[in-house]
Amino acid sequence: MASYCIWKSLTYSYLIIILGIPAIAEFYIGNQITITIGIALLFFLSFNLVQAKLWNKHYWLSLINAFVIKKNSQELEELTVNLKNEMASHKQTSKEIVISKKKLQDIYNSAHDGIYIVSLNGQVIDINATMEKMLNIEREEALKMNLTSFFQSTLNRSINLEEIWQEVVNGNNQEFNWLIKKVGSSTLSTMQVNLKKSLWGDDFIIIATVRDISHQVAAMEATAAANRAKTEFLANMSHELRTPMHGILGYARLGLKRSNNVPRIKLMEYFQLIEDSGKRLMSLLDNVLDYSKLEVGKMRYDIKKDNLLPIINEVTTELSPLAHEKGLMFDLRTRENAVAYYDADKIRQVLRNILFNAIKFSNKNSKIRIHCQKIFTAIGIQQLQISVQNSGVSIPKNELDTIFDKFTQSTATSTGAGGTGLGLAISKQIMEDHGGSIWAESNSGDVTTFRFLLPCSKRLQPDIQ
Fold first, then answer.
1. Which pTM was predicted?
2. Are residue 361 and residue 408 in the same domain, yes or no?
3. Which helix (H) or strand (E) covers residue 42, if one does?
4. What is the pLDDT of residues 362-373, one digit of tens each?
């Protein structure tokens, strides 16, 4: 196309030159021959132009194509710009979708509740990270599970899970508590399960949200136990107060009626029984008062270094009449002076509580063994250990810790031994205030041992009032 245009321009230039010369000659010379020559040349050049047109038969088509190509180029450029804008928009949309999906995934996995996504036939489709931690299972293992396998759970026989599942499939939301034993755990956990049917696209699924409410259940049980303990405490306290009060009033009435008739020795016996009942009543009231002082932190201590054996002998002598009624004997064993830092009155109270319990729960005609020895702790600190062992009503192993809680007694009190449930709680607080400890042990037979530790070094004492 370009070569043709150049050739065409040269041809027109030659034509102008050839026609121009004869025209000038005719104008100045007046020779008529030049007209003939000019006509000949004009014919020749016109012929060549026609030949040139025939030779380049695509001339007009090329002009049209050039116009069409230019227009198409403009349209293509516009389309390219639009495509770039569309791609940028799609890229931004894809980025926003990824961010939105990541947000939802983070919320899904950081939820406090465990979540199962399950098909209508029970096959697990997905599980969140909380559920993995809650049940201590791997995701791959969870995805192989089918929830219908739980229909025959031996731990939840009272729940008809098959019927519940059918209700959910029918579109009715369901909620229930489910007991499970987590992987690697020997204790049962209580799970609150909520089942809801939902439509995702063309498929129906079931969303199971699981919440571990073991702590709440334990708290509720503890609250109920505390309420029961308080009720039992009030009942026992009423009984414990009424018994010595009946003794006081009864013997006082006898003394008044027979004061003029009975011998003086008999009156002295009545007065002795009244005094014993009064001491028992005072002991109960002292326990309540001591506990209230411990609760508000107003208990006073006078801790000194001294031998504990005289205190033990004093308490055993005091309780010997009660022990002799059941044919019991105290067997004190120690190879050395039981020297430690302690408050005499408070440790006397601890010993009295422990020995009184030993007497109540011992078999008749048995021995109550008391053993003192110095031991070294794991970090090399010397302490004095006092052990009181008896044979009789044994404390269940699952109650060895709870018997030191306030208002709490062992189920052994069902024998009718009574008690306020404060003695051991007070003893535990006193030992902790001394920088020591107290605990109970029970074997598979009928032997129960109470042990407590007292510091042999002054630096073990806490700052107490």
1. 0.49
2. yes
3. helix 33-55
4. 889 999 999 999
